[in-house]
Amino acid sequence: MNKFGGDWTKIKIEILVNYAKAFLSIMKGRKYYKLLYFDGFAGSGFISKDKKKDVEITVGAARRIIEISDPRPFDIYYFVEKDPKNFKLLKQNTKEAFPEKKIHVIREDCNKKIIDLANYLRDPENKNVRTLAYIDPCGMQVEWRSIESLKGLPLDMWILVPTGLGVNRLLTRNGNISDIWIERLEKFLGLSGKEIEKRFYSKKLEQTLFGEESMKTKERGAIKKSAEIYQERLKEIFKFVSEPYELKNSQNSIMYHLFLTSNNKAAVKIGNDIVKKYNN
Ligand SMILES: C[S@@+](CC[C@H](N)C(=O)[O-])C[C@H]1O[C@@H](n2cnc3c(N)ncnc32)[C@H](O)[C@@H]1O
Fold first, then answer.
1. Is the pTM for the entire model greater than 0.85?
2. Which of 138, 145, 159 best tests ligand 1's pocket when mutated (most atoms within 8 Å of CB)?
3. Options 2.160.10.10, 3.60.15.10, 3.40.50.880, 3.40.50.150; CATH of 2-171+221-279
4. CB–CB of 76/34 below 8 Å?
């Protein structure tokens, strides 16, 4: 069972479920569409949070989505989970628990499966498939090239972006970032190291013992800035991107930003209404 999360763990699932119901409601009268739910980081099916005395169990997103039958269920469910233990539990909690449903549970890296999804949706044979995707990583596992592969496809996607817990932590104060971290940032943001430096650091000349030297300083507000950059990047791939839901820890620091992307204006309008409700 996955162990993590605060109240925001539940809220992000509520946001997804709220949106899924609205999506299914719109699709209710459009029986010619085959509806696919794709979950790239599906977990084990349940989430446990250790409290001092007892353990609180939350039903994970995968099961919450499978359980929706009204206004209409999805036709196919595709769950990706890389961790072998979670994968085994996920299979028991989804495919084996709902044998009447068309459920695929795959142990793979999400990046590979996002690209497979893009190829599947691009196939003319699948032109009547409409997809709701949920990309809920705990870290910076999603590579920009995977997101890029989804350009132009009929897919609505909620994506959790580790701005505070990921990007901001790799951007050191003095700008001396190890090659491994720079590579991680490049793959995640789809930007070059130089571009990343330009966006997050200012340079000024300082008098030192050996004369003038160029010093880098991390600009303020890097978490919000990384959310803005990611949103801007998403807008290059999808016609519409929602405002983000901000996931904060108990010290009120932002850990993640959650976005909805779509090529459909009405979809993002619904997403924005849901985000607004939960941000307040
Ligand atoms: C935040 S949890 C997902 C929780 C889930 N959405 C839920 O509601 O229960 C992230 C999951 O992604 C899995 N994971 C980590 N890296 C992965 C990758 N590269 N591809 C697929 N799954 C991965 C982890 O094992 C973990 O179970």
1. yes
2. 138
3. 3.40.50.150
4. yes
